[in-house]
Each structure stands twice: as C-alpha cells, then as structure tokens.
C-alpha cells in the first residue's frame, strides 16, 4: 500500500461462503513433528493454507504417543495439529521418497524440522527439491540453524531457553532459574517460520522463485530478549530474575489479595496516582519520594509493601472492581480452565467444538488471528494417523485406486 493511502473498507464486501482464510489455495507439504515445526504449519493452517502432514508408518508424529490419551488420541498431538491432513509415507523406501518428490511438484511450501542434513540424506533437501519445483519455499526449522558450531546438536525447548538467556531471568530472586511455563523456546519456530514464509511468498510474486529459509530456535529466543538484551548492553551486567516483577517499573507484578493474588501493571507514570486513589492513599500519588519511575524503582520494597498492605485486605473480585473503576491496568491470575472460559475468550471464539474422526465432538483452541468481513469455518479436527492418505494420492497426484492399492501393498503408504 502506498504511503497515505486510506485503508480499504471491508464492511460492504460480501462474505464468501467457502472462504477459509487469506492463504486459501496455498498448499504446504509438512515434514514436521513434535512442536516447533507443527506450530509453524499450524499457523499457516489457521490462515487457510492446505497442510499435507507427512508421517512415518507405525506411530506417526512422535507426539501421538505422548500421554495422557483419550480413546488412544494424545492431548499433545491434538493441541498442535488442527486443520491438517495426514498421509503416511515410508521415506525409508525409494518409492516413498519418489512419492514425496511428486508431492513437492504440487506444493508451494515445504516445512521440516529435522536436524540439518537429514533431509539432504533422504534426497529431500532444498537443492534437490528446488530443481524439481523452482517456486518452492523451503523452511527448515532447527534448534541452532544450518550454520555454527552447534548446528548438529539436538535441542529441546529448555535447551534454547537456557542458551538464549531467557531462562536466567525467569523465576524468583534468590532461587534457581525456572523455565517458562509455555514452551516458548520451541514455539518461537511457529512465529518466525511463518513470518519468513509469508515474506518469501510476497517476494515470489516478483521473482517467480522460492527460496530457502533457515529458522533457528536459539536465534528466535535471543531475538525476543528485546529490552532485556539492551539492559545488559547498557549496564554491562546480567539482568536478574524478578519473579512477576519488572526490573525498572514499580509497582508491576503480583500482589496478595485476601483470597489469592492480582496483577498490577504501572507501565507509565500516569497510572501511579490512579493506583494510589484506588487503594485509598491518594496522598502518595503526589509524594515527591515516589513521583518518578526511577524513584519508585529505587524505593521498590517500600512501594510494594505499601500496596500489599492494602490489597491483602480485599478479595480479588473487589480489587478487580476497584481497578476497573479507576482504570488501572490489572488482571486476576486465571488458571488455564478459567482463562479458556472467560467472557473475553468466549466473545472472541477462542474455544470451539469440532468433529474428530474417532473422538466425536471435541473442544479445541481456535484461530488467534481474525479477519473482519469474512467468517472462517471452524477448524478441522486434528487428523488420525493416515486419515487422508487415499484422498491426497487421488486428489493431489491423480492416482487411481489400483495405483494406491499397489503402494499400500508394497507398504510405501499406509
């Protein structure tokens, strides 16, 4: 869009009944498993792309074996694979690799999250596949990327958290660092992978060619350090863990209530007087001992004790009512069940029901990106292993029933 061009008004655009998202018509060949890669292909599925998930015979994606289960289906797999199709191909056979290469010709994007070199050894690396399909966008996600001294090492979420510095600033002061409750070390692949892919899709419009994208989970977490990294550059010291508090903003974090705890976030100086008014000590709002961010930071213990003395006499509900009235940034600390059931999440359709092949109707977390003006259908349920094998071979590759049966008899597909 050119500078100063007014945004397009979508309010009068008639909705398309069969619209599934802005990536409708884009096909992704998905060789990912566990979390980092599936998170990336999940983001593209939510945007409307067709995801063909290639799984090995037997167990399929390893997360299908992660307990707990319901009727044999893993909670872990269900959480990361909605809206995808599953095809089982044995890539240890020449015919299986040949079948995968045939699919590459029909796809726009390939995502894989094996260690660097694995796909090359299978004959499915970028150089080999771009010769077949020059428009192919190939996204390789790995713990450390395709270069550097750690490229061949295995990596898991907590490893990336530790090596990035993120783990060192998480936890309570004076205690061992604590890993993030959300596996952000892996999930950063689900953020940066799609960003790179969408940029390459845009570039392909002008060049006609795809490209290789190298996503490192360690790079991603280091990139998310943001002001924490800049604080280390400025001070020359390692930032310390602050629990739920902020290194430079006070009050900021969890404060006790009579029946739990509540978050207060004084992000800018303008909120300080509102907090003081809400808690019944308005004089502190203009007290020159606390009237700047720096002064409150230096008087952290005094300020926090003053606030805690008031919050601990009130219930969480009472504090929510007070802070809402005085427009103070705040939040009750919700459990996952309560977070999924809260009115805001319900109003935004963040939990929906979908029909699973073996489990029947199941609740799933829905798309986190909305497109006003068009209603997307409820995401398809995560597939059972090999659920779409025959349909993909017939619809994408045009194979006959006899050809599909021959592949099955030869145990190339299942």
UniProtKB/TrEMBL annotation:
This protein's UniProt keywords: Transferase
GO molecular function: CoA-transferase activity
SUPFAM superfamilies found in the cross-reference section: CoA-transferase family III (CaiB/BaiF)
Lineage: Bacteria, Pseudomonadati, Pseudomonadota, Alphaproteobacteria, Sphingomonadales
InterPro entries: CoA-transferase_III_domain, CoA-Trfase_fam_III, CoA-Trfase_III_dom3_sf, CoA-Trfase_III_dom_1_sf
Pfam families assigned to the protein according to its UniProt record, in alphabetical order: CoA_transf_3 (PF02515)
Protein name: Crotonobetainyl-CoA:carnitine CoA-transferase CaiB-like acyl-CoA transferase
Domain of life: Bacteria
PANTHER family to which the protein is assigned, alphabetical: SUCCINATE--HYDROXYMETHYLGLUTARATE COA-TRANSFERASE
